[in-house]
Design a protein that fits this description.
Length: 137
């Protein structure tokens, strides 16, 4: 099974932020939706970064002045690993395990965000038999 088929099962696209979105607003969106990571996209829909709860918490703990007045672009992770929709689920799981992250942005050939898949969703799919397990060599 490929990641694109996982995206098709999702009801909606994940909420996103722009680089100019205030960090406090991004935190409100994450808290309100229960999502721990927000993709950051430019005006053309291209993925330019990710902002995670952990990023915001670390920033708030380090800054005495808090997060007020900061934009997402000041805290987002810019070096983001993505997968194409055609990538096998097993490939995404392997990359996510090695890099130790829980969310994988899926982008088209021009870098436009198609969706976000979570580790739990992919594991659930594999454990339920929706995708063949990787063979041991």
């Amino acid at each position: 099974m490929v990641i694109g088929s996982v995206l098709q099962k999702q009801a909606t696209r994940p909420p996103c932020a722009s680089p100019e979105t205030p960090v406090a607003e991004a935190a409100r969106v994450m808290a309100g939706t229960g999502i721990g990571t927000l993709p950051v996209i430019d005006r053309d829909g291209r993925l330019v970064g990710l902002v995670a709860e952990r990023d915001i918490l670390s920033l708030a703990a380090e800054r005495r002045s808090g997060i007020r007045g900061l934009a997402v672009e000041e805290v987002m992770q810019r070096d983001v690993v993505t997968m194409p929709a055609e990538a096998p689920v097993e490939t995404a799981l392997t990359v996510m395990e090695r890099a130790r992250f829980r969310h994988m942005p899926v982008c088209d050939g021009q870098g436009r965000l198609l969706g976000l898949v979570g580790l739990a969703d992919l594991l659930h799919l594999v454990l339920r038999g929706g995708a063949p397990a990787a063979s041991a060599a």
